[in-house]
Structures are given as structure tokens and as C-alpha cells.
Amino acid sequence: MARFSIYQNLEDKTKTTPYLLDVQTDLLSGLNTRVVIPLRKSGQYKSLSSSQDLIPSFVIHGKGFVLDMPRMAAVPIQHLKNEVGNLREQQHIVMTAIDRLFHGF
Fold first, then answer.
1. The domain that contains 60 carries what CATH number?
2. Do 6 and 84 meet the contact criterion of CB atoms below 8 Å apart?
3. What is the DSSP string of 31-71?
4. I need a surface site. Which of 11, 41, 101, 104 has the fewest CB within 10 A?
């Protein structure tokens, strides 16, 4: 498991949140949970994309998604089996969203 890895969301039966982004530091890899942020289909959640720095958008496998920052949660590591990509190149955007949520700037 690695920070900024994108995993297929195997628990989403509705397929509105097909991916989860792992944002937990790799220094805590011994825990049995990981902190993730849902990546939701941008077309279905237009109201979420109103705040670019809190809820940024990304293109994954040619499709648009938004990072639903306010719904950050911890999930058991067994839910994160299928890594499908990563956002390491855009980690500054993810970190800006985390800062906005926790610090307001």
C-alpha cells in the first residue's frame, strides 16, 4: 500500500464511487486501516465540484472524477485490493484539499 494510490472501491454497489484514494502516510503501514478519500464520478456530483481547492477534479482512465474531501474516512486494508493507478504527480492538489478541510486555507 502506498500513499496517493488509487484503489477500486469494491464496496460500492451503486458504482457512483468507483475509486478510493489512499492518503495515509506510509510510515503508519502497520495499522490495519488506511485513510482514504472517495473519488466520485464528476458527472453525477456537479454540486461537489464548486470548490476547486476543497473538492478538486482529476481524470482517471480518461474519465472525470472529483475528490470528495469531506467524506474522508478510514477503511480496513482488506478493502484496498485492486490498485488501478496513483495521483503522486498531483499530490500537491490533494494536499491543498486536505489543508483546506483541516485548516481552512
1. 2.30.30.110
2. yes
3. SSEEEEEEEEEGGG-GGGGG-TTTS-EEEETTEEEEE-GGG
4. 104
* Residue 43: alpha-carbon gap to chain centroid: 17
What is the grid cell recorded at 30?
502497520
Number of domains within the chain = 1
pLDDT tens string 59-85: 999 999 999 999 999 999 999 999 999
* Contact between 43 and 66 (Cβ < 8 Å): no
The residue segments making up the domain with residue 25 are: 5-103
The answer to whether 97 and 68 have CB atoms below 8 angstroms apart is: no
Q: Is the pTM of this model over 0.85?
A: yes
